[in-house]
Design goal:
By secondary structure, this protein is an alpha+beta fold. It has twelve helices and seven strands.
């Protein structure tokens, strides 16, 4: 640990006296990584673990400066396998980062017929508002870029057209499929009665929210799925996305949320390419 402290001291001395571009870039990258780690562990139990680990590092540096040989040796033994300890302690957060890197840019839109998209938005909105009035619990997960095949396999495969009566019947109490989540992929109900086993451990979740909401937030933390929830106790409609919960949604808000997924961007690359190809085909037909 003393050698590490000496290296850090030399590093910062060189920067302040002979600053170079690569050194400044190095510090910037490390600062960004530390910031991202803090943001990932915010409002979770891992944040307390991170604070404790940083406290041990600071204590080790201080004991080395003060020449406390025995204490320095003890702390050095604890921190010698620091990388392995961090991997074990922050496994959920590391997994989340790797999944975000793996899926890259999020797929915000489903490419399909505009009229069909509007019908789907209307059917889902009608279903949720009806369930909310009757205080029937519901959990609808929209698959986006991250595949949810492992979650789908825990339920019953349907591969059905999206409709309000079907969704309401699925969540109706005392029916075979009412317990669990419905998975929607694009324009199809793929599976029902699916088990969401990853419950969020965020400290920001209030105690009045039960397992259904924690499961919804949990899957939104580990994937890019969008989840709509109806509370069985209060009838409140909520949305979980990117590990955050938005509550008290009305029909208008639900429609706007679904429109961001089901309506195509007006000036995107996909639309421009599609219009160009359609124009070329029409031009070729006109010539024939």
């Amino acid at each position: 640990m003393s050698s590490l402290f000496s290296q850090l001291q030399t590093f910062f001395w060189n920067i302040f006296n002979r600053p170079q571009l690569n050194d400044l870039l190095d510090i910037l990258i490390v600062a960004v990584l530390i910031y991202q780690m803090i943001m990932l562990t915010r409002d979770t139990r891992a944040s307390e673990v991170l604070k404790g680990f940083l406290l041990l590092v600071g204590a080790s540096l201080l004991s080395s400066l003060l020449g406390l040989t025995a204490l320095t040796w003890v702390l050095k033994q604890i921190l010698s396998n620091g990388a392995l300890v961090l991997v074990v302690l922050f496994q959920p957060e590391i997994r989340r980062v790797l999944e975000q890197l793996g899926r890259g840019a999020k797929m915000e839109h489903f490419q399909s017929d505009g009229e069909e998209n509007q019908r789907i938005i209307s059917e889902i909105t009608q279903c949720l508002t009806s369930l909310s009035r009757r205080r029937v619990g519901a959990l609808i997960v929209f698959e986006r870029r991250t595949g949810l095949k492992d979650v789908m396999e825990t339920g019953t495969r349907l591969d059905s057209t999206i409709s309000a009566p079907l969704l309401e019947n699925i969540f109706e109490p005392n029916t075979p499929l009412h317990d669990g989540a419905v998975i929607i992929r694009g324009t199809r109900i793929v599976s029902a009665a699916c088990m969401l086993t990853t419950l969020s451990e965020s400290n920001a979740i209030t105690r009045d929210l039960g397992t259904r909401h924690r499961a919804a937030i949990g899957i939104s933390e580990t994937t890019d799925a969008l989840v709509l929830i109806v509370s069985e106790e209060t009838g409140v409609i909520s949305m979980a996305r990117d590990g955050k919960l938005t509550r008290h949604l009305d029909a208008k808000a639900i429609g706007e949320i679904l429109s961001t997924m089901y309506h195509q961007p007006q000036d995107g690359l996909y639309v421009r390419a599609k219009n160009w190809l359609k124009g070329r085909l029409n031009h070729g037909r006109a010539e024939n």
